[in-house]
Design brief:
Elements lengths: L1 E5 L9 E3 L62 E6 L30 H26 L2 E8 L9 E10 L8 E6 L4 E2 L6 E6 L4 E11 L3 E6 L15 E8 L17 E2 L8 E14 L5 E14 L2 E2 L2 E2 L4 E7 L2 E8 L3 H41 L1
Parallel strand pairs: 1-3, 13-17, 13-18
Antiparallel strand pairs: 2-3, 4-18, 5-9, 5-11, 6-7, 6-10, 8-9, 10-17, 11-12, 11-14, 13-14, 15-16
Helix pairs in contact: 1-2
Length: about 375
Amino acid sequence: MRLQALGDPRRAPCRTQSQRGPRRSPSCSGRRGHPPFGRSTPSLRGAPAPSPGSPDTSQTGIPFLPSWDTDFLPPADGSQQTIHFLSSTEPRFVDPTPADRFDIYRKVPKDLTQPTYTGAIISICCCLFILFLFLSELTGFITTEIVNELYVDDPDKDSGGKIDVSLNISLPNLHCELVGLDIQDEMGRHEVGHIDNSMKIPLNNGAGCRFEGQFSINKVPGNFHVSTHSATAQPQNPDMTHIIHKLSFGDTLQVQNVHGAFNALGGADRLTSNPLASHDYILKIVPTVYEDKSGKQRYSYQYTVANKEYVAYSHTGRIIPAIWFRYDLSPITVKYTERRQPLYRFITTICAIIGGTFTVAGILDSCIFTASEAWKKIQLGKMH
């Protein structure tokens, strides 16, 4: 059976024509007013004609449609029929193309759906929830994440077994000509009065001194100390009270998201300690690698510190005080890596958020609607 629409609703009433059977009369003899496929449709013959350009509606809000005026029963001989009907609009259903048959998202006309108040509330909450989760995931996607890991290795193999050290210390009660730096380690190095890449700045009108120096140490246990051992004439009672402004190893890392002990002794104040006491700082140096998003690596060292203050004596009398930095290296390396969430993972997460939220919201709305309809039926049963 084939349906064909005539564009003008004001033309003659519909007629049924058999392709092989005799032509029926224009009056469409037989049962009149029966809709196609045996469904009962109210006659709108008495409805006012629509104005040109737009469909008219009756007082009930139903669009103007011409009444059915034909017999839709198939002929007795089983021949095919062509059904002509009048329509004020274009046919709503058309034969799908071969490509349309693969559409798994079939469309349902809005006239067949029923909006509800609870559905609107759930939809609004669902959209707000999706927006919140989307913004949270977007913030995480834009923000760079710092991932740390531990392993046993020497990260800076190209350094030649050396570690760069930067020291900045003030001794407000010791003259600059008495201040010196000594370095020694277990490989036999013993250097007194290191002067390369170092600077002495007088303080308090020459009564004190600020020592700044950059030097290298071997990757073996050892120490470096600030003392008067390199002075030509040894003072009797040197005052070793001090303030440490900076002590760092390797490259300087100033990364906001990395909180490490790269300058653990920075700001250490020993001005109120015993002037004749020696100070021991015991350092545990931890190799650290920082790798940015481009893959560039920087090598630095964190360290933990413990200190003690004492007055040393020997069989010949009191030992001249000094500020000792005794260090040892840890075999564990800490690596910080900048990472950003991959795009495919971000898209997958967003799809999961949207799909999961809509699915749960749909189930919730369906449950509420089903319960509401059941309650209405119960109430109607009580009324009757």
